[in-house]
Design goal:
Blueprint: H1 2-5, H2 10-25, H3 27-34, H4 40-54, H5 65-71, H6 73-95, H7 100-107, H8 110-121, H9 129-148, H10 155-183, H11 190-213, H12 222-246, H13 253-257, H14 262-274, H15 282-301
């Protein structure tokens, strides 16, 4: 498997990026199911601790994990904070406030946020006028989504607007996490980094839930545990793929993140199909089209 992950073929990079994004697009349904029964921070914490544990067999025999953590404690802490603790704390809280399809569309704007952050912090990721125009179109899509919730009309609309803002900040945190991984040029194994940061971020999310509501119960319906298992597996696989791709020579953060346009499309469709209380509306679809077009324009201008 490691041989496949580290091949230099551009087709392999694209294929693995698409696979990771398809996996992520299924998360919105699983999260919505789990949040029916659990506090968001508890559910998120358990999910990511399990995902981190699942990856242990893939790195345990390579080097002493304690010495690796000691040597790379700063980058591990920062990635765990931005990529798991802050990002998914905001994500799970936002998911309690907006429909799954809308959340999928908002998270789909993350390539635009990643492009701006990469431009600011990566020397080889330069912003051009066509890229700027595509980013403006993407922001129009975000504004359409926000206004479509009519936050000034009802308390429900205000809650959904607040949820949209939390999800937007979540994409900023994700972008910082991506930049940190891309700038990590040591011999730190990306699978090991992912395992440790997932478990660490999940552990602190779980601690937050304990302080908020105490220890969670264990008696949940089967669909809760199925959703938890699936989310843990996809986190272990998709983040490991993504970290490997971010550290490959010549891969730009902004360009790689463009493949995340798959997430809002399939995430929204999965939510509309599998969540009985959700259905497509005209404004979310328009917002999704604007965001998708902006990402395609960005991709064309980046060639």
């Amino acid at each position: 498997m490691n041989g496949i992950l580290h091949r230099d073929s551009q087709a392999v990079t694209v294929g693995l990026a698409i696979l990771a994004c398809l996996l992520w697009s299924t998360a919105f349904v699983g999260v919505k199911i789990g949040l029916r029964y659990s506090d968001p921070f508890s559910f998120a914490g358990i999910r990511f601790m399990l995902a981190g544990i699942m990856l242990i067999p893939f790195w345990w025999k390579r080097r002493s994990p304690f010495s690796v953590v000691r040597e790379n404690s700063k980058v591990i802490f920062l990635v765990a904070f931005f990529q798991t603790f802050l990002m998914y704390g905001l994500f799970y809280q936002g998911m309690t406030m907006v429909p799954g399809a809308l959340a999928a569309i908002m998270i789909g704007s993350s390539p635009l946020t990643a492009a701006v952050v990469a431009h600011l912090f990566m020397a080889d990721d330069v912003m051009t006028r066509p890229k700027s125009i595509s980013l403006c179109l993407g922001m129009v899509g975000v504004v359409i989504l926000s206004v479509s919730r009519l936050p000034w009309v009802s308390p429900t609309g205000l809650v959904e607007f607040a949820g949209i803002m939390l999800l937007f900040i979540c994409t900023v945190s994700s972008a910082f996490g991506n930049v940190l991984v891309a700038k990590e040029k040591s011999d730190l194994d990306p699978v090991f980094l992912n395992s440790i940061q997932l478990f660490s971020g999940g552990f602190f999310l779980f601690l937050v839930s304990v302080f908020r509501q105490g220890l969670p119960p264990v008696a949940f319906p089967a669909e809760y545990y199925l959703a938890l298992l699936w989310l843990s597996i996809l986190s272990a696989v998709s983040f490991s793929l993504w970290f490997v791709l971010l550290q490959r020579p010549g891969v730009k953060v902004s360009r790689l993140n463009l493949w995340k346009f798959i997430i809002p499309v399939f995430g929204a469709v999965f939510s509309w199909v599998f969540l009985p209380d959700e259905s497509p509306g005209i404004f979310p679809v328009i917002g999704m089209i604007c965001i998708a077009l902006s990402i395609i324009m960005f991709s064309v201008s980046d060639r």
